Amino acid sequence: MKSLVLLLCLAQLWGCHSVPHSLGLVYRQPACDDPEIEKAAQVAVDYLNQHLLHGYKHTLNQIDKAKVWPRRPFGEVYELEIDTLETTCHARDPTPLANCPVRQVSQHAVEGDCDFHVLKQDNQLTVLHAKCHSTPDSAEDVRKVCSDCPLLIPLNDTRVVHAAQAALAAFNARHNGSYFKLVEISRAQLVPLPESTLVEFVVAATDCVAKEVIEPTNCNLLAEKQYGFCKTTLTEKLGGEEVAVTCTVFHTQPEVPQPQPDVAKTADPIPTVEQPAPALPSAGPPAPSVTLGHVMVAVRPRPPQNWAHYDLRNSFSGVASAESASGEAFPPETPPKVTHPGAAGPGGPLVRPCPGKVRHFKL
Questions:
Q1: DSSP letters spanning 3-29
Q2: What is the pLDDT of residues 40-65, one digit of tens each?
Q3: Is 3.40.50.620 the CATH classification of the domain at 158-249?
Q4: For the chain, how long is the longest CA-to-CA vector?
Q5: Is 252 helix (H, G, I), strand (E, B) or coil?
C-alpha cells in the first residue's frame, strides 16, 4: 500500500514538472501611441540622453513596436523598438531636451534605432535593457533637399582638425579666464562656396589661466568639469584663412562615476584628435562586455578613423539585464499567447496600430 501511495505521488510530481511554464504566459500589444507606451518610451529616451558620453542628444521620433510582458511575481515589462532623431544640443549641454531643436535634413540629419526593456513596478519605470545605434541620412537624400547642402565628413580629416585647433587657439587668446583644452570634435562639414570647413567641438577648462599658458601639456582638467561647446567656420581666402568661432561655456558639472569594473580600465578610451586610433572595420563582432551582478556594461572600443559621427552604438553607455523581459524563460516551440487591444474587424483579423505617429520626419 505504501508503495502504491509513493508511486502516485511521484506520478503527480512528474506531471507538474512536465507542464511548460510558458503555457499561461500572455503579453499585450497596445497601440504604439497609447499613453502608457509613450510614457515608457520617453523614460527610455531620457535614459539614453543621461548616459550619452559623446555626440548629441536624441529625441523620440516614432515608436515602431510595443509589447507588454507580465513580470513575475510583480510588475510588467515594456519591450519597445523606437526611432530617434539627433538634436543640435550636445550631450554635455544642460539644456532640457524639450528646448533642443531637431537637426533638419538640410543639416545632414542623423537617425537612431533603439531597443529598450522598461520595467514598471509600483508605478515606477526603470530601464532594464538598452541597445542603440545611429546612422546619418544618405548623401543622396540630402542632395534631394538642396544641391549645395554641406555633408558630414570624417572627424579626423586634417582640415577638420586644423579648423578646431585654430578656433580653440583664437578662443583662448581672447579669453580672460581658464585655459581650455580640446575634448572632442563632434561634427564637421565642408561648404564648397566659399570654401569653408564647419566644425563643432567640445572643450573643457583647465587649472591654467589662458593669458599665462606657456606649455599647454602642463595644464590639467578641473576636478569639477566645466565644459564648453564651440562652433567654428574656417574660410579659405587668398593669402590666408579666416576663423570665426563662438563658444558657450556651461556651468561646472561634477563627474558622475560610470559603473565600470576594474577590467574596463584597461580598455582604450575613445581618442581625441591628439591621439588618433587605428581604423576598425565597419562591420564586426559586437562590443565586448563585462558583467556586474545582473547588469552588463559595454566596454567601448575605439571608433574607426573614418567616422563622420559618433554612433550611439559606441557613444552610449547602455545596460542589459540578465533577466528575461517576462521574468521567466519559455521554449521556442511553445510561443506565448498574445492579446490585442480592441476587436477584430468584420473582414478579417485586427490590424495592430503600430508603428506609431511620426513626430518630426522620417529618414
A1: HHHHHHHHHHHHHHHHS-GGGG-EEE-
A2: 999 999 999 999 999 999 999 999 99
A3: no
A4: 108
A5: coil
Q: Which residues of the chain have pLDDT under 50?
A: 14-24, 259-303, 322, 324-326, 328-334, 342-345
Question: What's the CA gap between 271 and 244, in Å, rounded?
Answer: 26
Domain boundaries, the chain: 21-145+287-339, 158-249
- Give CA–CA dist 298/313, Å, rounded: 10
Query: What distance in Å separates the CA atoms of residue 320 and residue 286, rounded to the nearest whole number?
Result: 14
Dihedral of CA atoms 180, 184, 190, 195 in degrees, nearest 10, equals 20
Contacts (Cβ under 8 Å, ≥6 apart) of 220: 206, 207
pLDDT at 16: 44
What's phi and psi for 227, nearest 5 deg?
-100, 160
Q: Kindly report the CA angle at 345 between 341 and 351, in degrees rounded to 5?
A: 55
CATH 3.30.720.120 fits 21-145+287-339, yes or no: no
Using CA atoms, how far apart are residues 66 and 47, in angstroms rounded to an integer? 18
Does 158-249 match 21-145+287-339 at the fold level? yes
**pTM of full prediction above 0.90:** no
**163 contacts 352 by C-beta, under 8 angstroms:** no
Grid coordinates given for 112? 537612431
Q: Which residues of 4-34 are buried (b: 16+ CB within 10 A; e: fewer)?
A: eeeeeeeeeeeeeeeeeebeebebbbbbbbb
pLDDT tens figures, 136-189: 999 999 999 988 899 999 999 999 999 999 999 999 999 889 999 999 999 999
Q: Is 102 helix (H, G, I), strand (E, B) or coil?
A: strand
